[in-house]
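[Discussion] Sanity-checking designs against the backbone

I'm trying to build intuition for which residues belong where. Below is a structure token string of 175 positions. I'd appreciate it if someone posts a full sequence so I can compare it with mine line by line.
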């Protein structure tokens, strides 16, 4: 689940990971963009279409009919990055394994919708990504796999090596 370009690397990785079966992509509806206000699909929709994945674009993910459509995908795990809507309890409890949120900062620093911009404005030399379990209304404070990166340097640690070994074989993912 996501609406911005920031989630595309994760979507590509999930789509090509041998450990995962990506069952669909949930993103925001197409919106008018630019001065001409041309109706444009969000980046995850474009990528999902090229990958041949089912695409859902609920206006309000809290609606029962939209939740039923997501439930039909039977995800074992839901991965969320920059989706743009608060997810209801029914959705968070839907996957067999978990609903995970990827946040573009090392929490608790720079919470909110623009963590990368906040990190740059604050002059942070180190930033990263936090993955956390989601709970109703927001996310639980339990975070794990903080990946760190130095701005302007080649010293990057993307994720611990154990990350690829923590998923059960054949798990079905919804992104």
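Best answer:
Here's mine. Compare freely.
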């Amino acid at each position: 689940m996501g609406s911005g370009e920031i989630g595309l690397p994760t979507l590509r990785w999930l789509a090509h990971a041998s450990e995962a079966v990506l069952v669909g992509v949930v993103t925001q509806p197409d919106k008018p963009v630019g001065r001409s206000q041309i109706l444009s699909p969000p980046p995850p929709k474009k990528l999902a279409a090229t990958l041949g994945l089912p695409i859902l674009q609920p206006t309000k993910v809290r609606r029962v009919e939209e939740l039923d459509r997501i439930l039909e995908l039977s995800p074992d795990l839901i991965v969320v990055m920059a989706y743009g809507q608060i997810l209801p309890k029914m959705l968070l409890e839907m996957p067999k394994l978990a609903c995970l949120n990827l946040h573009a900062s090392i929490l608790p620093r720079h919470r909110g919708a623009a963590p990368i911009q906040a990190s740059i404005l604050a002059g942070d030399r180190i930033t990263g990504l936090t993955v956390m379990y989601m709970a109703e209304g927001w996310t639980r404070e339990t975070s794990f796999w903080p990946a760190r990166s130095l701005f302007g340097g080649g010293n990057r640690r993307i994720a611990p090596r154990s990350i690829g070994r923590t998923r059960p074989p054949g798990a079905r993912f919804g992104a």
